[in-house]
Amino acid sequence: MNISGKTVVITGSNSGIGLGVAHEFAKAGAHIVLNSFSDRDEDHALAEALGKEHGVTARYIQADMSKSDQCRALIEKAGTCDILVNNAGIQHVAAIPDFPVEKWDAIIAINMSSAFHTTAAALPVMRKAGWGRVINIASAHGLTASPFKSAYVAAKHGVIGLTKVTALETAEEPITANAVCPGYVLTPLVESQIPDTMKEYNMDRDTVIREVLLKRQPSKQFATVEQLGGTCVFLSSDAAAQITGTTISVDGGWTAL
Fold first, then answer.
1. What per-residue confidence (pLDDT) applies to 1?
2. Cβ–Cβ < 8 Å for 119, 179
């Protein structure tokens, strides 16, 4: 898994899954480009701290993944992109007749279209370098569905389709494209929702996790950001050179049901 010295661009990576993936790549010796839509001192400080912790170069580049031109500019500003991890995403829950149009448009733009624009900008860079990896963070909802999540499910299904096309267009080159499909992951955002869910269902923490949050996850355990990052590092390794155009589920058996 020697990816030391490679540059990894990770969208939506100043927290949660994206930041966890960044740490795993940095542990493996890769240089990191963090990204989100904000441009705060703490964003840049986060990248600096990550770089110092792992002894690699880490930068933060602001780009709004809802804007096609900024998606493409992210790759240009990065200067190089050996490994692209399309992770940025948002969520909204509502029935189809009540789903706000602006929420639909935002989810499709950030969760799906951004991956198209960054990939379109990154592939020429990878081809010039003679090597590349595109890793799209999809979801169990890219392979199955749940009610009230029409935009998210549509976007994640679209990401998997884009992954397959990217793989076919690069099949004769040393470039691969794959999608990682997490189930429920214990991120700070999910952690913050647990107390309110406990109150709503009048359940203790363990019961809420098993019977509500992880109802569809047979393992009854959250996936971790470290596990997702490790999967991405593996997909970037020589061992995965012939793994392309497919999905890897990290969902505790969800999609086996």
1. 60
2. no
153 shares a domain with 203: no
**pTM assigned to the model:** 0.97
Tokens of 210: 């098993």
Predicted local confidence at residue 189, as pLDDT: 83
Predicted local confidence at residue 117, as pLDDT: 98
- pLDDT tens digits along 101-136: 999 999 999 999 999 999 999 999 999 999 999 999
Per the CB < 8 A criterion, the answer to whether 182 and 137 are in contact is: yes
Are 176 and 214 within one domain? no
Torsion angle, CA of 66/69/73/74, rounded to 10 degrees? Answer: 10
CA distance 70 to 62: 9
What residue ranges in 4-146 does DSSP mark as E strands? Answer: 7-10, 31-36, 58-62, 83-86, 132-137
Residues catalogued as catalytic? 152
Cα dihedral 225, 54, 88, 129 sign: negative
Q: Both 62 and 148 in a single domain?
A: yes
Cβ-proximal residues to 246 (8 Å cutoff; 6+ apart), any chain: 167, 178, 179
254 lies in a domain?
Answer: no
Report the pLDDT value the prediction gives residue 100, as an integer from 0 to 100. 98
48: in domain:
yes
Quick one: 25 and 98 in the same domain? yes
Q: In what order do the strands lie in the sheet with 132-137?
A: 58-62, 31-36, 7-10, 83-86, 132-137, 175-182, 247-250
In a domain, residue 228? The reply is yes
Provide the domain limits for residue 197. Answer: 186-222
